[in-house]
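Final report, Chapter 2: Outcomes

The project's central promise was a pipeline that accepts a single protein chain and returns its three-dimensional structure in a standardized token representation, suitable for archiving and comparison. That pipeline is now operational. To close this chapter, we reproduce one record exactly as it appears in the project archive, with the input sequence first and the structure output second.
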Amino acid sequence: MSTDRLHHKPPAIARWIYRLAVPIILAWLAITVLLTVGVPPLEKVQEERAVTLEPPKAPSIEAMQRMTEHFTETKSNTVVMIVLEGQQPLGDDAHAYYDELVRQLRADSAHVQYVQDFWGDPLTSGAAESADGKAAYVQVSLTGDPGQALANQSVQAVRDIVDRTPAPPGVEAFVTGPAAFAADLGPAGNRTIALVTALSLAVIFVMLLIVFRSVFTVILILLLVGIQVQVARGVVAFLGDLELIGLTTFVINVLVALAIAIGTDYGIFFTGRYQEAREAGEDRETAFYTTYRSVAKVVLASGMTIAGAVYCLSFTRLPVFQTMGVPTAVGMVIAVAVALTLIPAVLVVGSRFGIFEPRKKIAVHRWRRVGTAIVRWPAPILVATIAVALVGLLALIGYEPTYNDQETIPDDIPANVGFAAAQRHFPPSMMMAPDILLVEADHDMRNAPDLLVLNKLAKGVLSVPGVARVQSVTRPGGVPLKHTSIPYMLSMSNATQVQMLPFQRARMDDMLTQANEMEEMVAVMQRMYGLTRQIVSTTHDMVGKTHELEDITNELRDRVADFDDFFRPIRNYFYWEPHCFNIPICWAIRSVFDTIDGIDQITDKMRGLLENLDRLDALMPQLLEQFPTMIESMQNARTMMLTMHSTMSGMIAQMEEASENSTAMGKAFDAAQNDDSFYLPPDIFENEDFQRVLDIFLSPDGKVARLLITQRGDPASPEGIARVDPIKTAAEEALKGTPLENAKVYLGGTAAGVKDLVVGSTYDLLIAGVAALCLVFTIMLIVTRSFVAALVIVGTVALSLGTAFGLSVLIWQHIFGMQIHWVVLAMSVIILLAVGSDYNLLLVSRMKEEIGAGINTGIIRAVGGSGKVVTAAGLVFAFTMMSMLVSDLRTLGQVGSTIGVGLLFDTLVVRAFMTPSIAALLGRWFWWPLRVRPRPASSMLRPTGPRPLVRSLLMRQEER
């Protein structure tokens, strides 16, 4: 080891830490206590301030937002499914239980926005009931965004309703669906944080005990790690409680694991370097300054690299990545602050009591032999490391991620229990949020022509391979409405005609009866004709005799008038006699005279009667003339009726023969559920049942229609995602050349949402990866002051990333048969990019310190001096991250294992062999643009002073 550093003045911060070690320790303890007592636990803050993991500007989210704008029943896309499962087919008691659940759900307006009651409506019940009749479900839209604290509270409110409502015997209810999974994600991840932490500390304890062989040293380092973790948790919880940052279960788990691993690594760096300096013969104070000068810059660069790299996640658009940026960066900054102040302060105080003194001499000869082999055979060793890397890189070819969150959480959580119950009766896609296709037109679509177009669109979507069912206004139950095909309508018209045939046949019999009646009527009329002819003759004779009677009456009147004129004086006596009434003869003669006065009245009446008889005598011949015509018409009508009866009887016989199986065509179309000739008449819009269908699938103004799409398999699978574009294309093609040609088409739901995540994660990984690479390269360039060295560090780290993830694919996918969750790639790559450069940076920094002895000698010394400490730090970090395997969330286990495998590869292959072999191959070009000597200074300069000092002076002159 070179000794030129001994003549440098200690850094000012190191001197202050040495002087104020105890106050620094007390200050950090006070901060820890304050944060522990005054700030709620991080897990509690995460539950209360949980944020949604849905990307706000994704096309699928935009589609769902447009749906909530036009359909007024809900403003949320947070969906749960309540599944009813019975041991026997669900009966009336299950329906009553279901109705009670729906009633209570609708009553809870604070948490429930909309209940899609398909099973309670006979028109749509088939869509919500399983084929075996043993299960049914209801979809419930809740308040809040998926994953948010309000949405999680709404999920719990629904579960409380289900729990407190007694189910009938043999029936059980489960709450599952996307929002239920999101709500269970946090508790599932948080309940194993203590186990992960305990396992991490146990692994660290064993590893540190092996490295330092001192229980007190290990305990002190663990206490420092505990303080760092608690402060980081407290600060992040404080920021989260103020709603300055968002928190998820991924953030908490990754933050805790990273804080433990980083804190342990920095403790190993300081302690290991201090013991190395003590073994070199330095006193305690000098060893402290040497340690701080050597390690502090590496810790600062490493910490800022990690903090900066994870902060680059804030530039992403997906909340699952974006939410990790600030909290983990804050945690890493705290880790650096603790490492640069508290760990050195404890080192100062502990060194005074001999706690950190080396218990045995650090064995460097093995690592020096490794360094010697590297400088002797750099090319073969580099080829060998590349060959090892190819194992992982080639495994990347078969990478097939999973996008189904349900597969990454334990089977015993409530959402998964419900999902398993649903899977026994329904396809998996039924319990996911269905894919929803929106058609937004510029006019009201509640008319027959537009319904024909919407049905054509539904058929086009259904024809996409992998689509199992499409529910729309023309297919509310996923199948065509009954009796809506033109063949059925034609068959039904024939059926109506068949129903009329018996009545028509009865009317034909009535026609025959009527003809017989008409025949009798003709005979009667003929008899009436003969009688009328006699009446006419008699009337004419009677009129003649009446005229004679009139003459006689007139003559009688004249003679009576002569008599009256002669006897008038005598007549007056009878009228003047006051007692005439009492004298019989008088009253009798008076009556005779009164009778003679009536002759004039008879004559007048006879004249009037004779006028009427003359008119009757003129009319009766005319009446007689009508009878022959009437008789002939009646005979003709009877003949025509008999002819019509004969004709219609033949036609009815033909209609009966033609109407046999007339409804078979319509029944066949209904049974086949064939809607090739679909049509709904205009009067259907007045039907009350159809009005309910319109309310479900058309917006209140009729300008937006929605279709619910169910896929045959898992919509969150690669196959389901691949159907998103074909579904949208099929919908757009179906609208071409129709009145809805200019309508806008939107697609949301599970498959579309996952597709947006896939596309977004690709861009986010590119954004965060490029930003992190640029940041890492910049920091490496500042620390090493060598463009090539910085480039080599970044390049080897990038190679390590690909290899690490490829090995993870090999282990998880090809060996264990479990697909890797899609978020693992971005999370593990960004974190590996940050932490993977640490060990290379420490090695290169040590190589730069030892370069005064020559390039190859410096490589040997750097590998030998840092080998054990860096390897121990790398193994501790790797096994700490691997402790996440015990988490209930498989995603976290995959992230931890991927980072752990990457760190093992980076520590044991890249840092130990690849980077030094590249440095040995490049020689002085490795340090370009720095000017270095491949050989140490000449021995002739030794009288001038110590060789390291002379070497340092020469190097400075060359740099000038």
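Archive annotation: The radius of gyration is 54 Å.
This record, like all others produced under the grant, will remain available to the consortium after the project formally closes.
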